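retry 2 of 3: previous attempt timed out while embedding iron/sulfur cluster. Reduced batch size to 1 and resubmitted. Inputs unchanged:
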Amino acid sequence: MANLDPSPATATAAHPDKGAAAPEHRLYAKREPVFNRRIDGPFRRFKWFVMVVTLAIYYATPWLRWDRGPYAPDQAVLIDLANRRFYMFGIEIWPHEFYFVAGLLIMAGIGLFLVTSAVGRAWCGYACPQTVWTDLFQHIDRLIDGDRNARFRLYKAPWGPSKIARRLLKWAIYLAISFATGGAWILYFADAPGLMRDFFSGNAAPVAYATVAILTATTFVLGGFLREQVCIYMCPWPRIQSAMLDEKSLIVTYKNWRGEPRASVKKAEKNPGQFGDCVDCNQCVAVCPTGIDIREGPQIGCITCALCIDACDRVMKDIGRPRGLIDYATLEDCKREQAGEAPRPVWRSLMHTRTLVYSGIWAAIGFAMLFALGTRARTDITVAADRNPPYMLLSDGSIRNAYTVKLRNMQNRPRDMKIALDGLPGAVMWTDDMPREKAVRDLIRKVPADTTDVVRLYVVAPEGTVPQEYGFTVQSLDEAAETDRSDIRFEGPETSQ
Ligand code: SF4
Ligand code: SF4
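retry 2 succeeded.
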């Protein structure tokens, strides 16, 4: 049975000094340490699951390998800043395809809107890095110092050898986790095994050490000490979310019409029918990782982790009352329930207009990106004309334009590519590495794997050629026979017209 006796540490919300008079008119309230109690239940188990999955993804991903052949890195997920590439398993994004990354970010944003409109601050409660690392550090607290009451006693105890030893041990574990967190981050930006070796042998780039130092410090401070303060004061997302929630959004709610007036089990037994279901045991407050009392209504400190639901359901079970005094519910459903109607199934709450619209937009962008990814060519040409001078009149009266052409071979094998002039009758071209006498209308370049070949091209057109639009085409000379085209304007004297 759950502990329903309000001991000093459990009866006074989360803060041992709760009874002390709080200074008024202060810009920033003094932090009240949170000693949240261990709890088990479906939502806690789901939180465990999300924590293990997200941490495993974060720490393990840089070590996954993906064979892309001999000319490309074999790290499954790699942000290769030096070569300006982003690799994600079978997908390789080049700088000129950055719109895919923009699309992913837009999808992430809309996904967050979708989650918020459907299940309130579920992101905050389960998957936000601040939540995940804070949760992890709170488990370390329990491991080293014990559960809520033991931690409270230790907090109040004077500094002595035992307290110092526990604190040092705990902070050392915090530091190790924080270092692993910062360390894992840089592995996304270079070959993980190689960077690891360089890092510990002192041969990594200074920026790698600086990044690890900064991320270690921020994880240590934000996860180990500031914790719920980040959610309540520092993060802008709760403020944005408040504007996005409406009466159709699922939030964690205390059903006050059912719980009030509160009374202890003994008092309620002595006066049947006079009190609500809340036995004022404070278990919902004791398990809350942000130390708030959900019975005071929806508030910015609630990250909707639902641990208070687990705690209260357990109390209700122990005293033989129906579960759900604290529950996920929409404000609309609360009104219905209060009016005596049966609660609607959760899936009905999820199917409202805003959620469906967000889902539609999210899926449309996703399908468009998949389509674009599936149909994109791995051959690309861009042409930039010289601006100064835009053209040259040669001694024989012909007109010359000069260009910088970028030929991209986005396959991980070398390929021959044919560049050709499309339009501009009578014109021929040559490059820096061939004589003008051998100028042609199409030429072949060997482009190494996964490389941009930058070539200077000169196009000469017969005397009297007027300024006009034409194009360069490129075709890969392999079985794929991919093509691309870049339109450009041929410049010449206007008087020729
Ligand atoms: S809401 Fe539930 S857990 Fe919270 S004090 Fe009341 S009975 Fe206890
Ligand atoms: S009030 Fe409940 S749902 Fe909100 S943060 Fe606390 S335990 Fe989580």
